[in-house]
Write a structure and sequence with these properties.
heterodimer, B: 218 residues, mainly alpha, 6 helices
């Protein structure tokens, strides 16, 4: 259970089975810097696009939140791949499975709350009528 | 980024190629290294942190229209401040990546230089957020004003608390590198810190999109 035992000669921390999240397979400073620069550029572009989408009247107004949402999901993907180094490689299966379960719970919590609260809101009497019934 | 194809330990490697080959058995490699186990455990913590944030986001999404006659997000939010905060956090994430690379190649000077900028940009973000909160409270739009503002201060403030904790953690990490050097324990902790810092960026993406941009566009 030491780190050195499983560090390969090229400096990678993967033991051929698994990689720790955040670890890249080959440690090459130039390639690593290039990866972070690429991720940074993509993140800045996507951020600029969503700020533009929020202020523009070029997009049909009810479509703006959808555009912002899509850009946000894309940017989270960029952060996961380029900054947290989550990949689709076989050494990342455990990391991806945990992430997928996390995303499932997040969708259930947020989507379920919005759904049930909208439903309750829809089926509730307007507040003034409710107040009259209590008299 | 090349990975050697995984060897199936304990399994006969020669069967498919040559049915008459003598079976070769490879010993199992044993448990995963501590770095992989620790990194994975911290990844599970980060995902549970995301789930905690999702509850705050759900509360905000449900309550964002309940302004109780008070100011709306459209009236309160200053998107230039939000853009500056986003820029600071992105730059901080980039320099954090640089310092993680420097830790892996054990370059002390580069670790200190990159971490200095990570701390600086993180502090700039926090300063902008605190001044934004102070301005809103001074305008009478504090967390007590409406359900919308309670949920706004909760979710944005929770992220701000995480950034504060990250700054403290970074300082402690630099102290450990200075006193103990690049021992495996310190390097594992720095891996976890980098994961934490990048994860905060992902939460901020959700924050500026859902809270600020959708609030200002609505």
């Amino acid at each position: 259970m030491t780190d050195e035992a499983h560090t390969r000669p090229d400096g990678a921390h993967s033991d051929g089975y698994d990689s720790a999240p955040g670890d890249q397979n080959a440690i090459d400073v130039i390639a690593g810097t290039r990866g972070y620069l690429l991720g940074m550029t993509l993140a800045v572009l996507l951020t600029a696009a969503s700020f533009w989408a929020a202020g523009t009247d070029l997009i049909w107004a009810p479509g703006v939140p959808i555009a912002i949402g899509v850009l946000a999901v894309a940017q989270m993907g960029v952060h996961l791949v380029f900054f947290l180094h989550i990949s689709t490689g076989p050494d990342n299966t455990n990391n991806i499975l945990a992430l997928a379960f996390g995303i499932l719970i997040v969708i259930l919590v947020v989507g379920g709350s919005l759904w049930i609260m909208a439903n309750l809101n829809h089926n509730m009497l307007p507040m003034d009528q409710l107040m009259q019934m209590q008299r | 980024m090349t990975i050697a194809p995984p060897i199936e330990y304990g399994v006969d490697q020669g069967v498919a190629a040559d049915p008459h080959a003598r079976p070769i058995y490879r010993p199992f490699p044993g448990p995963a290294s501590k770095r992989i186990v620790v990194g994975y455990g911290f990844w599970i913590f980060l995902l549970s942190d995301f789930i905690m944030f999702s509850a705050f986001f759900a509360a905000y999404a449900v309550l964002s229209g309940e302004t109780a006659g008070g100011p709306t997000g459209k009236q309160l939010f200053d998107l230039r401040t939000v853009a500056a905060e986003t820029g600071a956090l992105l730059a901080s994430s980039f320099t954090c990546g640089m310092s993680a690379l420097a830790v892996q190649t054990r370059q002390t000077g580069k670790v200190y230089a990159a971490s200095f900028f990570t701390f600086l940009f993180g502090a700039v973000f926090l300063g902008l957020e605190i001044s934004e909160f102070a301005r809103m409270v001074a305008e009478g739009a504090g967390p007590q004003r409406s359900a919308f503002l309670s949920s706004f201060f909760s979710v944005v403030g929770l992220h701000g608390l995480h950034v504060t904790a990250g700054l403290v953690w970074l300082t402690v990490m630099l102290g450990q590198i200075a006193t103990r050097g690049f021992i495996p324990t310190t390097m594992r902790r720095f891996l976890c810190f980098a994961l934490f810092w990048h994860a905060l960026d992902i939460i901020w993406v959700a924050l500026f999109s859902v809270v600020y941009l959708m609030g200002a566009a609505a």
